[in-house]
Design goal:
With about 210 residues, the protein is α/β, with parallel strands linked by helices. Helix content is about 25%, strand content about 25%.
Length: about 210
């Protein structure tokens, strides 16, 4: 396994974090890299995390005020906590029911709260080239992580978050396959996503 698997900070997601964040729930927090990063920019933020891997959860306690060890959302049963930002950074694809998991997050979201979602984009040049060769080789990490249960393209990722009752306030791509010049060229054709392994969203609940 990649030694950084549980320790990534995900600084690429900072542009999706609202300046007004005060209470963050980091679902699948790993060793707490993302929360530690947020607290460097927002020292007063209260950060809670959820992590199934006990060894990673223990390390996260050095950065977070509270870490729930177990599976989301079961580990929050009975909790009255609410948050103005909930992060699902590369975690929904590990769940049997990411649609239900994202819908469930509304119960823990404060009024005017936001959700960050980052998902691997299966429809990138690297994965497509592998499929053309007749291969679908799992890896220790990345888009074809062997622990992924669900796979999304940018289009189906958008359908996931919208179907769960959210509107997309901001979208951005991460982890290009080739040089930025390729992204610019593909962008002119309307296919920018092909050169990126990840897509990120900032979401707000859809109002009735």
């Amino acid at each position: 396994m990649d030694p950084n698997y549980y320790g990534l900070e995900r600084a690429d997601l900072l542009p999706l974090v609202p300046e007004s964040v005060s209470r963050l729930l980091d679902v699948g927090c790993g060793e707490g890299g993302f929360g530690a990063l947020i607290r460097r920019y927002h020292p007063d933020v209260v950060v809670h995390g959820i992590e199934t891997a006990s060894h990673a959860a223990e390390k996260a306690t050095t950065h977070y005020q509270r870490v729930f060890t177990g599976a989301y959302p079961d580990v929050l049963r009975g909790s009255a906590e609410t948050y103005d930002l909930i992060a699902f950074n590369d975690v929904l694809e590990h769940m049997v029911d990411p649609w239900g998991a994202l819908s469930e997050a509304r119960r823990f979201l404060a009024p005017s709260g936001h959700i960050i979602v980052s998902l691997p984009n299966l429809a990138n040049l690297e994965s497509i080239a592998q499929l053309i060769r007749g291969r679908f080789d799992y890896a220790e990490s990345g888009v074809l992580d062997r622990t992924h249960l669900r796979f999304f393209t940018v289009k189906t990722a958008r359908e996931l978050v919208i179907g769960a009752g959210f509107v997309i306030e901001k979208q951005q791509f991460h982890w290009p396959v080739l040089r930025p010049t390729v992204t610019r060229f593909l962008g002119k054709l309307g296919y920018e996503a092909l050169n990126h392994r990840q897509v990120g969203f900032r979401l707000a609940p859809r109002q009735p």
